[in-house]
């Protein structure tokens, strides 16, 4: 079930996303957040930091679990998702660092790290709000289009489309890791509420496919159609084909 919010500009996009997360924390300070990386949520995190500075929101008792992490990038690498989260959000708010969780991409054994993260998620109980961006090929987290999808946290080989899209953050595509650890589709769908965000004309086609197309593992985001509580925030461009 989708509740689609179409916003008019970047500021509204970020304020609406941050507003949903902030009101959850206001009503439930101990909320468990599922967080995402990528370009889409950066402005949302910026706005949350503003709300925190204004005393309107606190992360003091919140816990967070991130969707995914590249395998092989040191945690202090400029593109590691742990560093991204520290720099874009965690370092600027009152969240207890020990309550922030990102899969470990540096343990040397990706499969073991994935299994450990999955156990952690199971112990954490239900995620109250899972924030999601959307890949151009319909991936969520790093669940890439495939014949079969995996429910639990696992190691994935990244699609060429994904590596190309993310190459903009690296010096060249050769530096983009080939593998990642991602929460599985099952873990994502277990969240109480999902907040899917997409902006820009280049996302219009995949947004329409995900929300209105057939439910297929070839478009992992289409499985969100099975979830009872998904809020979708799109700008006019990304929502252009809805
Ligand atoms: N693993 C991340 C996803 O979690 C993200 O949602 C997606 C879209 O990224 P962007 O928001 O930059 O378009 O791709 C990345 O590869």
TrEMBL record:
Which Gene3D superfamilies does the annotation name? 3.40.50.1360
Q: Which reaction does it catalyse?
A: alpha-D-glucosamine 6-phosphate + H2O = beta-D-fructose 6-phosphate + NH4(+)
* Active-site residues from the entry: 68 (proton acceptor), 137 (for ring-opening step), 139 (proton acceptor), 144 (for ring-opening step)
One GO term describing the cellular component = cytoplasm
Q: What is its EC number?
A: 3.5.99.6
Gene Ontology MF terms in the entry? glucosamine-6-phosphate deaminase activity; identical protein binding
UniProt record, GO biological process: carbohydrate metabolic process; glucosamine catabolic process; N-acetylglucosamine catabolic process; N-acetylneuraminate catabolic process
Q: Which domain of life is it from?
A: Bacteria
* Membership in a protein family: Belongs to the glucosamine/galactosamine-6-phosphate isomerase family. NagB subfamily.
- Quote the function comment for this protein: Catalyzes the reversible isomerization-deamination of glucosamine 6-phosphate (GlcN6P) to form fructose 6-phosphate (Fru6P) and ammonium ion.
Q: What is this protein called?
A: Glucosamine-6-phosphate deaminase
Organism, as annotated: Paenibacillus lentus
């Amino acid at each position: 079930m989708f509740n689609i919010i179409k916003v008019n500009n970047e500021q509204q996009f970020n304020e609406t996303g941050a507003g949903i997360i902030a009101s959850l924390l206001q009503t439930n300070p101990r909320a468990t957040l599922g967080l995402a990386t990528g370009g889409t949520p950066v402005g949302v995190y910026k706005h949350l930091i503003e709300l925190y500075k204004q005393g309107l929101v606190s992360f003091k008792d919140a816990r967070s679990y991130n969707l995914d992490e590249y395998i092989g990038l040191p945690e202090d690498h400029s593109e590691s998702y742990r560093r991204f989260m520290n720099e874009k959000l965690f370092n600027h708010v009152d969240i207890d660092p020990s309550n922030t969780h990102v899969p470990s991409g540096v343990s040397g054994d990706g499969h073991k790290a994935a299994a450990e993260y999955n156990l952690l998620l199971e112990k954490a109980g239900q995620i109250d709000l899972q924030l999601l961006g959307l890949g151009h090929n319909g991936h969520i987290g790093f669940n890439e289009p495939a014949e079969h999808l995996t429910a639990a946290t696992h190691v994935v080989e990244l699609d060429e489309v994904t590596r190309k899209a993310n190459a903009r953050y690296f010096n060249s595509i050769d530096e983009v890791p080939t593998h990642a650890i991602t929460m599985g589709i099952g873990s994502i769908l277990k969240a109480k509420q999902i907040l899917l965000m997409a902006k820009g004309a280049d996302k219009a086609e995949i947004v329409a496919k995900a929300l209105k197309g057939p439910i297929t593992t070839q478009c992992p985001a289409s499985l969100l159609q099975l979830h009872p509580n998904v809020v979708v925030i799109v700008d006019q461009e990304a929502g252009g084909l809805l």
